[in-house]
Amino acid sequence: MNIFEQMESNVRSYCRSFPDVFGKAKGSLLFAESGKSYIDFFAGAGALNYGHNNDFIKGKLIEYLESDGLSHGLDMHTSAKEAFLNKFSELILEPRNLSYKVQFCGPTGTNAVEAALKLARKVKGRSGIFSFMGAFHGMSLGSLSATSNLYHREAAAVDLSGVTFMPFPHGFMSTFDTIRYMEEVLTDDHSGIEKPAAIIFETIQAEGGLNEAPVAWMQGLRELCDRHDILLICDEIQVGCGRTGPFFSFERAGIVPDMVVLSKSISGYGLPMSIVLLKPELDVWKPAEHTGTFRGNQLAFIGATAALEYRELVHLEAEVNKKAEWVGQFLANEIAPISSEISIRGMGLLWGIDVSTSRHANISKEITSCCYELGLVIERVGRHDNVIKLMPPLTIPMEELQAGCAILKQAVQKCFEKHEAVQQHAMV
């Protein structure tokens, strides 16, 4: 028994799929103590959009550390926070004509979701929230109440109330008018559902299985909220910071949410950081009404500022779009034809291989396990974990992106051929 099995809680998760001991990482590569290297199509669950140990960001962090800059500052005024706010305003908000105020929360995404839900309820004086089937918003009790995954919800061991789940326009609901359904729910005095303070949504349900919200649907959702005096909260924690191409994934719909929650790659280096962007008129907080000891991660501010500079320096959005086009074509031309039981969806550098209709149980797990054996780290998401999710660092070199996709094709082909051979043998 190793030290991890001996001392670490059973709650550990990713190490069960990727059991090596990792000691080093660079760019889009992970290096195990065994000497084996892996191409990373996981990117810290979306926290490493700029890759492992990005030289530009690392240089800024080292410079700050060597200058004895503050390592901890609560919510005091600091030079690191000032630099981030100025750069974020200059490069992200102003060019998009967004006038959000910024609330710094505790260090993880769930903290930002908790703050946004709490503020929405305070502003509107209503307790209800609408979320969507397939949603993932965090693991603390408030955000978990807006998360639909029953496996995670059952672990709470308490009632998770205050949230009503609405159909998301995907799968069997893709032809159902979910906007009209919500309109009827909100206007029918016998629906049994009270008007919520806010609706929280993801433009792409990443953990839910790469379920993409159509542009017209997002625009309809914005109009619905306006008609009924409901706040619209967009969860950009995993799909923001350039993952889909533009900095915000909601940009493609031309909408402006009332609040936006950001975490994961906002710090640029995998450092804990989360923020809520809120329209100025919603900033009704009283001093210290919502606090947190680690809402002032100074190193994260330095990393976040450097990441915004780096994004401009290397024209990252254009790079993502170029790689996205290649990945989309590869998946359509090389992966989808392997089996009629495969469907492909995604955008930017966030793609899914859906094998949920496969006759072969657990084939998604077999494929990702085979990928790992061949030197590729990749995870599964969605209902019953039947969607294989490609999420490499946005900075991945083209040759490593191609090499990782080649491993993926090899694994998919091998697993489907094995099952087909077994099935044919059983029929003889």
Automatic annotation (TrEMBL):
Quick check: keyword tRNA-binding in the entry? no
Pathway(s) it belongs to: Amine and polyamine biosynthesis; ectoine biosynthesis; L-ectoine from L-aspartate 4-semialdehyde: step 1/3
Q: What class of enzyme is it?
A: transferase
Q: What GO molecular function terms would the record report?
A: diaminobutyrate-2-oxoglutarate transaminase activity
Which Pfam families does the annotation name? Aminotran_3
Q: Which cofactor does it need?
A: pyridoxal 5'-phosphate
Cite the Gene3D superfamilies for this sequence. Aspartate Aminotransferase, domain 1, Type I PLP-dependent aspartate aminotransferase-like (Major domain)
Q: Report the EC number(s), separated by commas if there are several.
A: 2.6.1.76
Which keywords appear in this protein's UniProt record, sorted alphabetically? Answer: Aminotransferase, Pyridoxal phosphate, Transferase
Q: Which domain of life is it from?
A: Bacteria
Q: Supply the InterPro entries for this chain.
A: Aminotrans_3, Aminotrans_3_PPA_site, Dat, Ectoine_EctB, PyrdxlP-dep_Trfase, PyrdxlP-dep_Trfase_major, PyrdxlP-dep_Trfase_small
Instruction: Name the SUPFAM superfamilies on file.
Output: PLP-dependent transferases
Family from the record: Belongs to the class-III pyridoxal-phosphate-dependent aminotransferase family.
Name of the protein described by the UniProt record = Diaminobutyrate--2-oxoglutarate transaminase
Species name for this entry? Paenibacillus plantiphilus
